[in-house]
Write a structure and sequence with these properties.
The protein is α+β, with helices and mostly antiparallel strands. The protein has 1 helix and 12 strands; from the N terminus they run ββαββββββββββ. 19% of the residues lie in helices and 31% in strands. A hairpin with a 2-residue loop joins strand 7 and strand 8 (116-118).
């Protein structure tokens, strides 16, 4: 038996003689325009490119010498010292190194008052172990890893420039 097919432009609905509807709406999706379809397709095609760009940008950032090596001499004094963008806290044989960037808004901490690290911008205070004593900062200073040259006693810290 031959089924006759009727087409209606107004509803975009196909019907056969048995009365079955093959409407786009019946597929469970909201109907979108051709323009919207191609816009979404274009965005979906750009996602892998964005991921590749981000990966390349990260690698380039590291390749372009963005890592700064700060060398701290073996004869650094006891107590708190400032070297470029790091803070060195030396107590007998124990050494701790922190980022000098205040955790409140990123100002560089470059002074102490009575053994307490003080941010010059908004007055946040930190102990010699990098812990917050007084706000507005609410996070401790970032502790940085370092390498100790056993022959010379020199300390090397790597930080992002």
């Amino acid at each position: 038996m031959h089924d006759s097919i009727k087409y209606s432009d107004k509803k975009t609905t196909f019907r056969n003689d048995k009365g079955l509807s093959n409407s786009i709406k019946n597929f469970g999706k909201k109907k979108i325009s051709r323009k919207q379809f191609f816009q979404r397709l274009g965005l979906a095609a750009l996602l892998p490119l964005a991921g590749a760009w981000y990966s390349t940008a990260q690698q380039t950032r590291l390749k372009d010498g963005q890592i700064e090596r700060i060398k701290i001499p073996a004869d650094a004094p006891q107590g708190i010292s400032f070297f470029d963008s790091v803070i060195v806290s030396k107590n007998k044989n124990q050494v701790e190194i922190f980022s000098a960037k205040c955790t409140h808004l990123g100002c560089e901490i470059n002074k102490t008052e009575n053994g307490i690290l003080v941010c010059p911008c908004h007055g946040s205070e930190y102990s010699s172990t990098g812990k917050v004593i007084k706000g507005p900062a609410d996070k401790h200073l970032k502790k940085l890893p370092y390498k100790l040259n056993s022959k010379t006693g020199e300390i090397t810290v790597e930080v992002m420039a």
